[in-house]
Amino acid sequence: MVRTKIIEVGSMVPAFEEERLIILFGPKATPELRDISVIHEVEEQPKNSIKVGGKLKVGEKVYNIEEVGSQANPNFDELGHVSIYFRNEVGEILPGAIVVSPGEFPTIEVGDEIEFI
């Protein structure tokens, strides 16, 4: 299990709600990336913790992990980076992305926890 805490929400994050996309980055993200990202600090992180069939918890909402891109775990382990698509259908997936369902976009606030279970 990985538990992280949201420490910053970029000014452009609400613009991605229509696409149902959240971009996570660790605290070392560049200023350009901070505008479009949810910045989080990992409290504990085993390697390769994002798995198909696992769960993603954002605040009180729980999602099923449907797809995991080939680079999602290495990027998350190294940079705290993963793109999360909240969708009911699975299609083409980017290497650094995951797809979770249901497609309901979560409310995100500083101080909320994100867990990969």
Describe this structure in words.
- An eight-stranded mixed barrel has the order 1-3-2-6-7-5-4-8.
- The protein is mainly beta and 117 residues long.
- It has helices spanning 31-36, 72-79, and strands at 2-9, 21-25, 38-44, 55-58, 61-68, 82-86, 97-101, 113-116.
- 12% of the residues lie in helices and 39% in strands.
- A hairpin with a 2-residue loop joins β4 and β5.
- The longest helix is centred in the middle third of the chain and has 8 residues, at 72-79.
- It has one domain: M1 Pyruvate Kinase, Domain 3.
- It is globular, with a radius of gyration of 13 Å.
- It is built from two helices and eight strands, in the order ββαβββαβββ.
- The termini are close together.
What secondary-structure arrangement, pairings included, does this model have?
Layout (H helix, E strand, L loop, with lengths): L1 E8 L11 E5 L5 H6 L1 E7 L10 E4 L2 E8 L3 H8 L2 E5 L10 E5 L11 E4 L1
Parallel strand pairs: 2-3, 6-7
Antiparallel strand pairs: 1-3, 1-8, 2-6, 4-5, 4-8, 5-7
Organism: Enterococcus florum
Protein name: PTS sorbitol transporter subunit IIA
GO molecular function: kinase activity; protein-N(PI)-phosphohistidine-sugar phosphotransferase activity
Number of helices: 2
Mean pLDDT: 93
Number of strands: 8
**CATH architecture term:** Beta Barrel
* Secondary-structure element series: EEHEEEHEEE
Kindly give the count of domains.
1
Helix content: 10-25%
Q: First CA to last CA: what distance? A: 5 Å
Major sheet attributes: 8 strands, mixed, barrel
Structural class: mainly beta
CATH fold topology? M1 Pyruvate Kinase, Domain 3
CATH class: Mainly Beta
Query: Radius of gyration over alpha carbons?
Result: 13 Å
CATH superfamily: Phosphotransferase system, glucitol/sorbitol-specific IIA component
